[in-house]
Amino acid sequence: MRTRSRGDIVFAGFVYVFLLLVFIATFYPFWNILVLSVNSADDTIRGGIYFWPREFSFTSYTQILSDQEILNGVKVTLARTLIGTPLAVLVISLLSYPLSKRDLVGGKFITLFFIFTMYFGGGLIPYYMILKSLHLIDTFWVYIAPGLMNVFFMILVRTFIQQLPGELDESAKMDGANDLQIFIKIVLPLTTPVLATIGLFTAIGHWNSWFDSYVFTYKPELKTLQAVLVKILNQYQTSNMVSDAQQMANSAKRLSVSSDSIRMAATIVATLPIVIVYPFLQKYFVKGMTVGAVKS
């Protein structure tokens, strides 16, 4: 066994210290938000809360989870994530498989056509007009249909499929399998890592999306959680909402909330689901990004 030199030990110590500082810089903001959200609103006003709450209180979460606008936003966001993610993965994989065939007639032209859309677009107004002509404005499907295709994800999946041994297709065809059977029984199981990767990214995109809800929907029942959160984080609207919440609390349960506690609790409610899901898909995420990003 090779003895580690003093230089190796110093370098390793520097790396560990650097990684620890990066961890603190990325983790502490979330921790501080959590601490402020579970601290008593009256005590939070005094300031000086950094690492641990002085007075535990879940009043802000009670107020948040009893607000019908937020609950409706959770339902809409959950629905668009659960519906939009598998549909997008299916559409992307169905397009990626034929484009991965090097002998596909016009395959290069089709790929370049899709790549062109990554760099050039008509802008928000033409995009709005297209959605309006398709009767998607102010409907739930305005969240689903435009997000069914992501060119970058398509290229990632196509590259992954191209790295699979060509003998798999040949042997399957010799056994009488057609392209659809090969896609379902061979390609899909082998592309699980990259499909899980794009599925994770797509789900995060749906969960965190708020701009499309602001621009393309007007009905309150179609507003997503993030759109409601943006409304809460707006200082003027937050003040009005907190004032109403305080009146309700004082008249009903004698509970107090503040602007900061409401904002912090809403942020945790909007962030926590994705934080919980990510560890379960991390192994697929790492493998999919590593293998799918290498072109043979």
Write a brief structural summary.
It contains 14 helices and no strands.
Round the Cα radius of gyration to an integer and report it: 25 Å
Terminal CA distance reads 37 Å
Quick one: overall form? globular
The helix count comes to: 14
Strand content: under 5%
Helix content percent band? over 70%
Question: Which spans have pLDDT < 50 for at least 5 consecutive residues?
Answer: 245-255, 292-296
Helix and strand content put the structural class at: mainly alpha
Question: Can you walk through the features of this model?
Answer:
- With 296 residues, the chain is mainly α.
- The chain has 14 helices and no strands.
- The chain has helices at residues 6-37, 41-44, 59-65, 68-99, 107-119, 124-133, 151-162, 166-174, 179-190, 192-208, 211-216, 225-233, 235-252, 259-292.
- Helix 1 (6-37) packs across helix 14 (259-292), helix 4 crosses helix 12 and helix 10 runs antiparallel to helix 14.
- 25% of the residues are buried.
- Mean pLDDT is 81; it is low at 245-255 and 292-296.
Topology:
Elements lengths: L5 H32 L3 H4 L14 H7 L2 H32 L7 H13 L4 H10 L17 H12 L3 H9 L4 H12 L1 H17 L2 H6 L8 H9 L1 H18 L6 H34 L4
Helix pairs in contact: 1-14, 3-14, 4-7, 4-10, 4-12, 7-14, 10-14, 12-14
Main location: membrane
Keywords: Cell membrane, Membrane, Transmembrane, Transmembrane helix, Transport
Family: Belongs to the binding-protein-dependent transport system permease family.
